[in-house]
Amino acid sequence: MTKHEQIIKHIENLTVGQKISVRKIAKYLDVSEGTAYRAIKDAGQRGLVATIDRVGTVRIERKARQHMDNLTFGEIAKIIDGHFIGGRSGQFKTLTKFAIGAMEVNNVVHYVSKNTLLIVGNRVDVQKAALEKGSAVLITGGFDTTSEIKRMADEKELPIISSNYDTFMVANMINRAMYNKMIKKEILVVEDIVIPIEETSYLMETLTVHDVRNKSSESGHSRFPVVDTQVRLTGLITSKDIINRDAGEMISQVMTKPAISVQLHTTVASCAHLMIWEGIELLPVTGVDRELLGVISREDVLKAMQVVGRQPQVGETINDQVAKHIEIRNHQIFVEITPQLSNQFGTLSKSVSVAIIEETIRSVMRKNKKVEVMIESLNIFYIKTVQIENEIEVQYQILDMGRNFAKVEVTMESNQAPVAKALIMCQLLDH
């Protein structure tokens, strides 16, 4: 067992929550600090450890393979600039969905469960109901909660996160982060297609050309990774390397070295480029210390590229979701203010106001001028608040337009009274 493997094994045997440092690992296992550092970094990639602000590196519960691409509650807290006010020990748990708590407390139980995050304002009854169902809680508007709720969260190890952002903003920040994770998941990496070492044909560098010929005849393969006694990659040998070679020659004298290799996190697209550019049919896959983990073939890489090319990728931005609430009637633009578009006070969120104006401009320019727009500046003045379930009428006036630019004034009205005005400068883009 290599020193690297010894450190990984040592980390695996530590209790969850135990702090880890390079210096302590190096001293305890009598290894260099450089070796300890590389092993701890590898352990982080394997999901064994994590670095926490103001705490340091700690042993965490390893995520199951199917949850590796899900967000943890700790990651959510960073995304929304939030902080834990309860249940901090559950920050490494993952969530699979989130729900907005703009509903009666009796209805909450139908929308939350384990691995759910409920987004809610200053409603203690809803927070308690969510925790009882095994759901974490995100409190918007910067509100705190009661000591009873915090104690309940600590006991159940369910995080309570507080954020100063409004409900709509945090929901869309989380939605975007989850979508980004999904896109990353769809990007194939070597780990998704690697043939593990247990199923890989490889040779020891102490063997001879005669052994290569026998192995090739038995397996039907013509290319083999070559390793040392510690199963670290030292070269690659192919049928071309042993043509006209003496049967007694050592592999180490005729193999190609150093062998080009890739890591588990290398993208399949990168591997395809490398294989085509270098004319390689087989790529060894190695770890941090060049230990052989498996191989990938050119055929498998090209098949994977073909499959992923047929996969649709869909997702929504904040503006995409706002656009769903925009309705055009008799050439006029209307927006109904639903709970999803509100802040913690039950009024129209300012971030939504900006998105409504942006989408109005884009809709007008696409329809009337047949062009796309890029908004360069937007100055908005808020006049009145708009309550939930009210309707907004959006009016616009083109103040000036050139070949490549436009100045537009937008007025938002509710109950025939202005609630906001904006002046927009935008660039016109041909399709």
From TrEMBL:
CDD domains: CBS_pair_DRTGG_assoc. Keywords: CBS domain. It comes from the Bacteria. InterPro entries: CBS_dom, CBS_dom_sf, Diverse_CBS-Domain, DRTGG, HotDog_dom_sf, Ser_kin/Pase_Hpr-like_N_sf, WH-like_DNA-bd_sf. Pfam families: CBS, DRTGG. Gene3D superfamilies: CBS-domain, Hotdog Thioesterase, HprK N-terminal domain-like, Winged helix-like DNA-binding domain superfamily/Winged helix DNA-binding domain. The keyword Disulfide bond does not apply. PROSITE patterns: CBS. Residues 182-254, 255-313 form the CBS domain. PANTHER family: CBS DOMAIN-CONTAINING PROTEIN, CBS DOMAIN-CONTAINING PROTEIN CBSX3, MITOCHONDRIAL. This is Multiple CBS domains-containing cytosolic protein.
